[in-house]
Amino acid sequence: LVTSEPDRITLWRVSDGARLASYPSQERAVGPGTGFAATTDLSLAAYACGPPNPQKVCVVDLRNGKELWTAEASPGYVMALAFSPDGKILASADGFGESDIFLWDVATGRKIGQLADHSSWVGSLVFWPDGKKLASASADQTIRIWDVASQKCLDVMHGNREELWRLTLLPDRKTLVSGAKDGTVSLWDTSVTHSRQENIIWPVRIDAWTFTPDNCSVLTLDLNGQVALWTGADFQEKEALFEAGPILTDADHLSNRFSKDGRLLAVGSTNGIVSIWDVARRVLWRQLTNRASIAGPMTFSADGNRLVTLSRPPFTFHEWDLKTGRESQTWPCPAPFLGAFTLSPDEQSCVAIGYEGDVFIRNLAGGNNDQRPLDALEATGISDED
Predict the structure, then answer these.
(1) Do the Cβ atoms of 202 and 219 come closer than 8 Å?
(2) Residues with Cβ < 8 Å from 99, sequence gap 6 or more?
(3) Closest Cα to residue 208, out of 272, 290, 268?
(4) What is the C-alpha R_g of the chain?
């Protein structure tokens, strides 16, 4: 048995619990990933090492503790590692900054492959006993099966509602067992190919979007600040409408927003101004400001007459009457905050959840706050049906 701690790798004899060897390490694994792996004969081990940004993979000889090689494997964190059964290939998965899986030649430390289809970080990797296939479990709620030789994705399994954190293959060599963030354990039959979901892909990076009221078109705001209308059977026919200028992107998880009817677009900024565009007329309609350094829209009311924005510092919510352009009320925002906010269906209240679990409920009609002791740790989003 081999175990790994933050600064030490230890080999144990299971029969009597004797410690056979112990070597220093520089492991810096990040949960909930699996940033440590060993070959089946326990001759080699690999672990995530070094400070993040970037992070490296280190391979050591467990017979003498000698470091064989290190390689830069991720711009952020190495979240998962797995050796092929013959010990010749090491698979590593990036986390947070990347979603690709890399294949390494264990003998040389040379990168020999890259598997790129997941849309979020991969937390667990499993090789088949013959080394010909690799399974990956991702925070994008899918499991993918890969052909190692061709580096092609053979199958995608959908159905989880939460991030997938763990994966193992049963001895029958066809049943995968997955564990998800919400505690769900699922069994997957890999002897059959699962139907794939059809995707519509736009050739631009989208920051905000909404369907038009007739559901026949889609309005988008891309990362270059261009507003466009997409039509046609597969929404591939593009009509450029106007340029909204420089847009706020991922500043404390603030996003730019369309109103629900697509009539208005709210764009945040780093100078405290939220710009309201009239999409139909293609003109800048209003600019809202409270003199904060960063401000961005959270949500429109259904009729488009009210808008809630977030500014910092300090973290503060603001409700605006868009008919007059005046601020109607303000209240504190839980911090740190990663965008978990919604209006109630009747739009009389709103809920905001901080990343550390603080839950703030605002009665918009009465103008008062209520803090609830709910178990909502690490919240990044809320549905108005919750």
Answers:
(1) no
(2) 116, 118, 119, 120, 121, 122, 138, 140
(3) 268
(4) 25
3-state secondary structure the chain: CEEEECCEEEEEECCCCEEEEEEECCECCCCCCECEEECCCCCEEEEEECCCCCEEEEEEECCCCCEEEEEEEECCEEEEEEECCCCCEEEEEEECCCCCEEEEECCCCEEEEEECCCCCCEEEEEECCCCCEEEEEECCCCEEEEECCCCEEEEEECCCCCCEEEEEECCCCCEEEEEECCCCEEEEECCCCCCCCCCCCCCCCEEEEEECCCCCCEEEEECCCEEEEEECCCCCEEEEEEECCCCCCCECCECCEECCCCCEEEECECCCEEEEEECCCCEEEEEEECCCCEEEEEEECCCCCEEEEEEECCCEEEEEECCCCEEEEEEECCCCCCCEEEECCCCCEEEEECCCCCEEEEECCCCEEEEECCCCCCCCCCCCCC
Tokens found for residue 148: 């190692």
Residue (of 240, 238, 233, 148) closest to 202 by Cα position: 238
pLDDT class of 386 with cuts at 50, 70, 90 = very low
Block residue for tokens 């990663």: 338
Residue 379 confidence (pLDDT) above 80: no
Over residues 152-164, the mean pLDDT reads: 88
Phi and psi based region of residue 350 (left: phi greater than 0; alpha: psi -120 to 50; beta: remaining) = beta
Residue 171 CB partners (closer than 8 Å, separation 6+): none
Strand partners, 34: 80
Please count the other Cβ atoms lying within 10 Å of the Cβ belonging to residue 17. 8
Distances (CA, A) of 216 to 198, 210, 227, 313, 344: 18, 11, 17, 40, 27
Record the tokens describing residue 380, joined without a space. 């990044």
Q: Which residues pair with 359 in a beta bridge?
A: 353, 372
pLDDT of residue 190: 94
Lowest mean pLDDT among 27-41, 106-120, 285-299: 27-41
- The per-residue pLDDT for range 63-102, each reduced to its tens digit, is 999 999 999 887 778 889 999 999 999 999 977 667 889 9
Q: Name residue 314's amino acid.
A: P
Tokens 């008919």 — which residue?
Answer: 323
> Are the C-beta atoms of residues 328 and 336 closer than 8 Å to each other?
no
User: What is the per-residue pLDDT for 124?
Assistant: 93
